[in-house]
Amino acid sequence: MNTVSTPKVEAFYWAAITFSQTLGTALGDWMADTGGLGYERGALVFAAGLALIAGLCFWTNASRVLLFWVAFILTRPFGATVGDFLDKPVAQGGLALSRPLASAVIAVFIVLCLLVLPQRAGQHPKALEQAL
C-alpha cells in the first residue's frame, strides 16, 4: 500500500482489485457449476491452492509479492464457493442456510481465525530505512 502514491499506480491497483473480484467470483462459480465439482469440492480445490501458496511462502524464497497476489486472487473463488455452499438449496449441493445465517457463520469463522492464528505487527518501510 505504501507504493500506491501516484494516480497511475492507484488506477492499476483498483483495476487489479476489480478484475480479481469479478474474475475470481466467476471462476468459483464456473468450477462449482460448469466444472462439475460442486460447491464443496470447488472450495476444497481453492483451499488446497491457498495451502500451497502458504507452503511456498513458509518454505521457499518465492517472490512474496507474487505469492500475495496469487493468494489474493484465490481467496475470491474460495469465498464464492464457500458462500454458495452455505446458502444454496440442498438440491443444488448447498446447505440451504439463509443469507444472514451464512454470513454469520463466515463472520464467526473469521473471528475465530483472528483469535487462534498468531498475528504479527508489521513495520512501516520508513522505520526499516531509519533502522539501517
Walk me through the topology:
Blueprint: H1 7-32, H2 38-59, H3 64-87, H4 99-116, H5 125-131
Helix pairs in contact: 1-2, 1-3, 2-3
Characterize the structure shown.
By secondary structure, this protein is an all-alpha fold. The chain has one domain (7-118). 73% of the residues lie in helices and 0% in strands. The chain contains 5 helices and no strands. The protein has helices at 7-32, 38-59, 64-87, 99-116, 125-131. Helix 1 packs across helix 3 and helix 2 (38-59) runs antiparallel to helix 3 (64-87). The protein is globular and about 60 Å long. The model has no long low-confidence stretch (mean pLDDT 87).
Q: How many separate domains?
A: 1
Largest sheet: none
The residue fraction in helices comes out at over 70%
Task: Sum up the overall morphology in one term.
Answer: globular
Strand content: under 5%
Low-pLDDT parts are none
The radius of gyration computed from the alpha-carbon positions, rounded to a whole number of angstroms, is 18 Å
Question: What is the gist of this entry?
Answer:
The protein has helices at residues 7-32, 38-59, 64-87, 99-116, 125-131.
Which key terms come to mind for this protein?
73% helix, mainly alpha, globular, 132 residues
